[in-house]
Amino acid sequence: MSKKKESDVIIGVFEYLRKTNRPYSANDILNNLKKEHGKTAITKALETLAADRKIMEKTYGKQKVYVMIQDGETYTNDQLSEMDTEIDILKENLAKLNQELKILNDEISHFKNKMSVDELKTAIIELTEKNEENDKLLDSLKNSKQIIFNTDPITVTKEERTKINQNYIY
Predict the structure, then answer these.
(1) For the chain, which end, N or C, has fewer CB atoms within 10 Å of the first or last residue's CB respectively?
(2) What is the mean pLDDT of residues 113-125?
């Protein structure tokens, strides 16, 4: 393999590991790079990067796992306390926003449960028609000279009458 091709593989593998920032085996990298390079070339590139201390190699049984070396930034106590303060402020803002969201969602559900203007108009028309029918029936019953009798009288026993009288509020 030419030096140029070899360096392309090394750069490609390094950039992939840097971009994903998680551990991979050589087979995982081969599959994730859609087999752009051969397994041997990827394995050599990983070993070269590990030897140059650009990535870390860890062996688990027969399998080797490769991961980027984290360049841990060090922060002073003042910087850490500033970050903690900023985190607390952001948490408070998040809580306020979540509460506002809940209120707005409640309003939305409240309005969804209400009838629309068109539904209200049709309900008014239906109720008006029913009211007119009932008025006509009432007028006909008022003007009618016919007396309506219950043909099947209800008999109430003495016990039922006392029970009704006890429950009746005067």
Answers:
(1) C
(2) 89
Convert 85-114 to b/e letters by CB count within 10 Å (16 or more is b): eeeeeeeeeeeeeeeeeeeeeeeeeeeeee
Q: Which amino acid, 20?
A: T
Residue 39 falls within a domain, yes or no? yes
If asked whether residues 43 and 26 sit together in one domain, one would say yes
Cα angle at 73 between 23 and 58, to 5 degrees?
25
CB 57 within 8 A of CB 46: yes
CB 56 within 8 A of CB 71: no
pLDDT for the residue 3: 59
Question: Which pTM was predicted?
Answer: 0.43
Residues 79-116 pLDDT 10s? 899 999 999 999 999 999 999 999 999 998 888 888 88
Domain tally, the chain: 3
The two tokens of residue 1 are: 């393999």
**pLDDT(166) > 70:** yes
Q: Are residues 39 and 8 in the same domain?
A: yes
Residues 45/7, Cβ–Cβ less than 8 Å: no
